[in-house]
Amino acid sequence: MDLGLNGRNAIVMASSRGLGFACAEALAREGANVTINGRNAEVVRAASDTLRESYDSRVCEVVADASTQEGRKLLLSAYENPDILILNGGGPPPIPFQKTDEKVWQKTLNETLTSPLLMVQAVIEGMKKRKFGRIVAITSAMVKSPHPLMTLSHAPRTGLTSVLKSISRESVKHNVTINQLLPERFETERHRSLLKSTAKLQNKSVEEAEQDIKTSLASGRLGRPEEFGDACAFLCAAQSGYICGQNLMLDGGNYKGQS
Amino acid sequence: MDLGLNGRNAIVMASSRGLGFACAEALAREGANVTINGRNAEVVRAASDTLRESYDSRVCEVVADASTQEGRKLLLSAYENPDILILNGGGPPPIPFQKTDEKVWQKTLNETLTSPLLMVQAVIEGMKKRKFGRIVAITSAMVKSPHPLMTLSHAPRTGLTSVLKSISRESVKHNVTINQLLPERFETERHRSLLKSTAKLQNKSVEEAEQDIKTSLASGRLGRPEEFGDACAFLCAAQSGYICGQNLMLDGGNYKGQS
Amino acid sequence: MDLGLNGRNAIVMASSRGLGFACAEALAREGANVTINGRNAEVVRAASDTLRESYDSRVCEVVADASTQEGRKLLLSAYENPDILILNGGGPPPIPFQKTDEKVWQKTLNETLTSPLLMVQAVIEGMKKRKFGRIVAITSAMVKSPHPLMTLSHAPRTGLTSVLKSISRESVKHNVTINQLLPERFETERHRSLLKSTAKLQNKSVEEAEQDIKTSLASGRLGRPEEFGDACAFLCAAQSGYICGQNLMLDGGNYKGQS
Amino acid sequence: MDLGLNGRNAIVMASSRGLGFACAEALAREGANVTINGRNAEVVRAASDTLRESYDSRVCEVVADASTQEGRKLLLSAYENPDILILNGGGPPPIPFQKTDEKVWQKTLNETLTSPLLMVQAVIEGMKKRKFGRIVAITSAMVKSPHPLMTLSHAPRTGLTSVLKSISRESVKHNVTINQLLPERFETERHRSLLKSTAKLQNKSVEEAEQDIKTSLASGRLGRPEEFGDACAFLCAAQSGYICGQNLMLDGGNYKGQS
Question: What three-state secondary structure class fits C34?
Fold first, then answer.
């Protein structure tokens, strides 16, 4: 299937590894120019080189922390005319709600809600003028099914979802779509790290915690990052202009509620 | 993007025109064998020929009414091992709830709820054994936002959605996914026909009714059937095995609620 | 709190025991005239007597099966001007989807979807004319979180919900509200009976099955029918005219999704 | 109906007028002790006196801005053992998303998300120990149907909802319930003020804007604050311990989506 992405300019936040990298790779494979972004120069370089070796598309490296104004400026300077923006970022570790405090709330709201919104603000008007734009936010299955140990993660993400939904109804008529991908349990480094924290909090070994997770999943397996990347590429496709304002879960059918 | 559908056997119900045909075409383009189904032999033949002229995949014609036991039997005899099942069917005309009666309810529930369920029953165990299956139901945006003139349409479709969601949690571990596509306002013959009925009920000209619709849509345009077909093909892709139990709206971002 | 229900006429379907009886009792306590309905004359009589002993309101007995035309006729003859209609009915036993057949689907769709709709059809226009009406459907938490063993129950109930939602937007301006109550795990005879079936299907003792249920519930306890009845009475209150089209779960906070 | 609230201690935030006052009044009428809170001493005094004249319950005045640490401290000092907490606060004026900036986002997130969460943190453990607690957040219908002019309002409120839902599953087993009330279009001063802003933004007269609103509402009328107060009192009732994690809309049936 031709996704019509050849030559499109894609900013992919937090894309030096994990699901962000998987999205960048799928977009690069389809011929889009992609920006690899991360805070660690070596990791960004390695990820970029991997893409350059496999695909013809141009890869741009931006070592920057998108939760700061300077970081966002750098990211936005990658292209004069960005066509695609993938909102992504790390997440906080699990912590019981009663142990959160005002400071940690300000930090997570800035990183996971305000920062991506400011990125959207910076690109959306140009996209509307050029009559093409694809914005995809990588959020979490917890937007639909919030976990008490992850309030710092799902609160800003649901807030972000709410803003994106409301403004998408105004952008879609200019062929600028905004959608969210809601992952649950992919084989990424972040998964490994969360697994360790969860194990510690629940007083279990990592192996026990992993087995518990797999048993608890309807699919009985973790998702593969490349499955995620392809879903992202599809939402960015030229022919996906009628898909807008959607929360697409990639959770192996795990969510029990009506979606 | 390679969807990994080459040689897969796809039963597409009510596929001689409209969104069903668009799904069949996208699947055929990706190399799947497809069954074209409808009640009118000439229309089925014409649709099949159109696909044969453009694509190499095998096209099988089944003139049958899937709301009858014989019709379903015929459809199911097309392949020994079906890999893909697209649930689709015509819908009732708009009618105020107070004018519906017991008989018309029985008819619509049989056609739009029980019949597709019996099709699923017939194929799902084989899919699970063979470790591959993709079931996509074409429902309606009204599953999320039900209209009082269309109770005969959205009641069976929401019931169908409910059953599919519940059984999908058991099939996904065998790589059998079940998802729904929720269209709103595509340029199809059905759209034309509904438009006429609506216009009549609202005492308007067809042109006025169409203009009202476009103005009321966030995207300001109707969807194109080929956009719908590509979304269907993507959900059927080999790499979409982690997408299950989803209601994906194709409504040009029109729905105002959180999805 | 005065609910303003004194002298209102309430038809409560399937109210000789369980949640239906609890609703009838709460309405009677608030001064409404209530119809006790069931298929067993002795049980209907006993339930009616219980209410008559405790409350001053008039109690009318209707021994009738509301899934038949004659049954509905009898029920509707109780009051010339019904003000309140509580939709309720038994539910099917748990059964795996693959074991359901066309006949059993027709039966459950008639009993749990078409029959209540025909009751609504019969009363709603009068309510609109008289500028007061309260319709409450007792459905199930499975409308939000459908279970694969209970497809015969949640499919018709979600279909019913869809119709009620769509027509409620037209009735509310006449002070006729329609809402749904979604119970999960109340201490009723139906609970006991389902427990036995589930235990059998899962090859467990009833005690084990019950313990599994309590452990699985967020609240750690079953709901009390009188809690349910009071919620129903509140939705029927004079001052609840701005609450319409709602799915109110009474599940002890068990559902994990955003509601 | 006896709500079992006699002698309960209720902190009602932002309760000197509007929906907050209506909640305080309904709770006081049911015999609860209530805290009237606002930033203007005269308004707080007047509201408190109104309650004292009509009801026997004790009324405590707290002039404080709950978005500050000192303000929250004052509010929390009202009772040693609070039983009920009503989360409420003013909302930002309508403003297009593109005109929002980092500073205004920080302000709204602090006021409407972090501050209420810190209030919950302060009271919930005590409630759990004492085996009774009722927390009700007054949010907005826009949690379900977000408007592009109100991103500063619905983003923090959806985030708040997400946190409350997740922690409610842990508190309910201690008879501490958490629910949300989602108002739309009540006859309050806030309504008047929003109406003016909207009118200005849409270049209309206030009368035109009001007429547009009424015409757009399914119920054809605005809600009355006392209807809202009674719904709040019902959620706080002793017999409402099995209602938890719910989003109850009070919107006159206006929302078109499945709720």
Answer: strand
- Of the residues A158, A182, A258, the best mutation for testing chain C's interface (the one with the most C CB atoms within 10 Å of its CB) is A258
Please name every residue paired with B11 in a beta bridge, in sequence order, or none if there are none.
B35, B85
CA-to-CA separations, A109 to C37, D125, D255, in angstroms, rounded = 54, 25, 29
- Across the interface, do B220 and A173 touch by the CB < 8 Å criterion? yes
Distance from C-alpha of A77 to C-alpha of A62, rounded to nearest angstrom: 9
SS3 A177: strand
What is the chain A residue with the closest CA to C143? A258
Where does residue C204 rank: exposed (0-12), middle (13-18), buried (19+ CB within 10 A)? middle
The complex scores an ipTM of 0.96
Domains of chain C, first to last: 9-186+224-250 (3.40.50.720)
> For chain D, what is the mean pLDDT?
96
Token readout for C112 is 């749990």
Which pLDDT does position B169 carry in this prediction?
96
- Rounded to a whole number of angstroms, the CA Rg of chain C reads 18
Residues of chain A with pLDDT under 70: none
pLDDT for B258? 87
Contacts of B65-69 with C-beta under 8 Å, sequence gap 24+, read: B65/B39, B66/B13, B66/B14, B66/B37, B66/B115, B66/B116, B66/B119, B67/B110, B67/B111, B67/B115, B69/C102
The pair of structure tokens assigned to C216 is: 């699985």
Sign of CA dihedral C57, C63, C67, C71: negative
Catalogue the E-assigned strands of chain C: 9-12, 33-38, 59-63, 84-87, 133-138, 176-183, 247-250
Chain D residues with CB under 8 Å of a chain A CB are 69, 97-98, 100, 102, 105-106, 109-110, 113-114, 117-118, 121, 124-125, 142-143, 146-148, 150-151, 154-163, 165-167, 169-170, 258
| List of chain B residues whose C-beta atoms are within 8 Å of the C-beta of residue D149 | none
- pLDDT (tens digit per residue) in B166-193: 999 999 999 999 999 999 999 998 888 8
Q: How high is the mean pLDDT in each 10-residue block of chain C (259 residues)? A: 98 97 98 98 98 97 97 97 96 93 98 98 98 98 96 98 98 98 93 88 92 93 97 98 98 93
What pLDDT score was predicted for residue C197?
86
Q: How far is C83 from chain D (nearest CA, A)?
A: 18
For range D53-82, the mean pLDDT: 97
The strand pairing partners of B129, in sequence order, are: none
Q: Rounded CA gap, B90 and B69, in Å? A: 17
Q: Which residue of C146, C158, C256 is in closest CB contact with A145?
A: C256
Three-class DSSP category at D22: helix
In 10 A of CB C116, how many CB atoms? 27
Closest chain A residue to B252 measured between Cα atoms?
A242
- pTM (2 d.p.): 0.97
Closest chain C residue by Cα to residue D1: C1
C240 and D227 in contact by Cβ < 8 A? yes
Mean confidence (pLDDT) of chain A: 96
Distance from CA of B245 to the nearest CA of A (A): 5
Smallest Cα distance from B42 to chain D, Å: 40
Alpha-carbon span A182 to A47, nearest angstrom: 23
The DSSP annotation for B137-151 comes to: EE--GGGTS--GGGH
Of the listed ranges A99-108, B88-97, D71-80, D156-165, the least confidently predicted one is B88-97
The residue written with tokens 């056997």 in the block is B9
Half-sphere exposure of C237 (CA within 13 A, CB side): 24
Give D253→chain B minimum CA distance, Å.
13
Contact C167 B109 (CB under 8 A): no
Which chains neighbour D (Cβ–Cβ under 8 Å, 3 or more pairs)?
Answer: A, B, C
Q: CA of B69, closest CA in chain A: separation in Å?
A: 30
